[in-house]
Amino acid sequence: MAVGFGILGPLRVLENGRELDPGSRKQQILLAALLSHANTRLSAEALVEALWDDAPPRTARKNLQVYVCGLRRLVGAEPGGGPEPAAPVVRISHQAGGYVLHTPEDGLDALRFERRARSGALAGALALWRGPALDGFRDVPLIDAAARRLDRRHLAVFEDWLDAELAAGRGAVTIERVTEAAQRDPLRERLRMLQMTALCQAGRRSEALAVYDELRQSLAQELGLPPSPALARFYRELLCDAGPVLPRPAAPAAPAVLAAPSGDPAPAPPPQLLPTDPPAFTGHAAAVRRLTEVLTGGTGRLAVLTGPLGAGKTALAVHTAHRLGERFPDGRLFVRLRGDDGRLRPLEDVLRQLLAAAAPAGRGEPPGPAHRSDPRWAWQLWLTGRRALVVVDDARRESEVRPLLPEAGESAVVVTARPRLIGLEGAHRFSLPPFAVDEAVEFLGRTIGAERVEADRESAARIVRAAGLLPLGVRLVADRLAFLRHVPLSEYGARLTGGRALLDELCGGDPLVRVRLAGSVGELPEAGHRAVLRLGLLAHPVFTLEQAATVLDCDPGAAARTLEDLLEASLLTVAGPDGAEGPGAAVRFAMPALLYAYARERAAKAAERVPVRQR
């Protein structure tokens, strides 16, 4: 049986042109996840999270296997279900603790779209779209991230098609389509420029000028930026009634399958490979503006975002990068320096990931054996003369970052790190503070509902303070409250008392947060590791130097040096007399709430192991 799939719109399953029922909602989610990552392994953990979010049943793995069997029956390739075809069109295999849905290009509309786009058949590629990608499954983060990538690729191909139409002098017939697209992405400068050109070709120059003015005001309000130099130059040409904005002479009618004006396939767009823009991103407006200014400035486009575990460094970097697409025409790339186990990845692996992301975009992959033998040289060659944005996530030492920094060109780099990385010369450093209480409450309301928060705002404020006002803690408490819909905020706030209770309440049966906390402490030298755990003996996470010296059992001078090391590692902050961050008459130190809860938990367990006669 020949089964095909569609994800460029609502999910579709077709057998020889006849639509099939894809099964239950859970089975459809599983199918959508596998199709959105076709021919790529998805771990069982990722699929379980997609199916049950953060509350999987104890039988989740067995249930997952049941759904996989159901999909195999749907595609006619179930192991043990009779003789398989010599070459099944679609099959699902189990690989290394995960699953892969194998399909040829003809079996999935997204793959056919990419093939047509690469060959220059832009009109044919766009004709495959039936609506927003994977419509109906965007509430699942794993699927939503893939769908957003498809949507961005669709927009880039649409712009290439529109450019070809304008080159043929057919701008007037494209105005309705380009206007609809511009309404969905009002800050995308290339799209707006194409819209202005189409209006000019239709003799509607005043409307084209109005488009520029609208974009200029939106950029100023949303990003605090003027239009790019290219767009400003384009606008000046339009005002002078000269340049490429004038109607082009009519060209011979193009065939249904469009190619670039030269006859060669249309060049692939630059790489835009970022994680999904955090949907509930809140606060840090000043940091976004400052970071934007640094990255788009004339010199020194290197930014280091520092802060403790859970401060929102990665979210801020990704959110800002998503807003700067037009400022980096050669692409935006994201790379993690550490694997899921927290260990540093080999530099060669990191460089090859970056090169693999950049090379398919046709932006100049270095030829020959040098690329394979020396990825550092290849990476620097790719960066030379280009303007790309690179986000380097979770650095711990300067030596991990330096090989990735551009030696030439106009590219910009954002590094997220817990330590300040003071050895990176010329870097602009941003230390992320905790949320303000109002920001944290707003973040909470976005997850559990603004009405629930407004009904008891005092308890909501008490909850976010107990969670430490860091994005990680507030997100954990928000996710927990979203599950506990029946629990009043006042009752839940009463639970968050005592360090051990906080971790137990937020982590539940998931050890990941404790693992990350243990990792942040375990990377310290032995003296620093021991100091953090000893500070957990203090009665409050905000303390003076003298109180620290007492629990560390050392003189104030030695205690000060230890605390300074912890400040550099972003495991402590300097607080004012009332515990709020900032300068104060009496210097106090503050430990983030989750780290303090972890330190208290470890201190309590250590005390339980001491024999009674030694206490």
TrEMBL record:
| Domain OmpR/PhoB-type, first and last residues per copy | 1-103
**What Gene3D superfamilies does the record tag this protein with?**
P-loop containing nucleotide triphosphate hydrolases, Tetratricopeptide repeat domain, Winged helix-like DNA-binding domain superfamily/Winged helix DNA-binding domain
Q: In terms of domain of life, where is this protein from?
A: Bacteria
What Pfam family is a match for this entry? BTAD
Keyword match NADP = no
Q: Which residues bind DNA?
A: 1-103
Ordered alphabetically, the record's keywords are: DNA-binding, Transcription, Transcription regulation, Two-component regulatory system
Give the family per the record: Belongs to the AfsR/DnrI/RedD regulatory family.
What this protein is called in its record is OmpR/PhoB-type domain-containing protein
Source organism per entry reads Kitasatospora putterlickiae
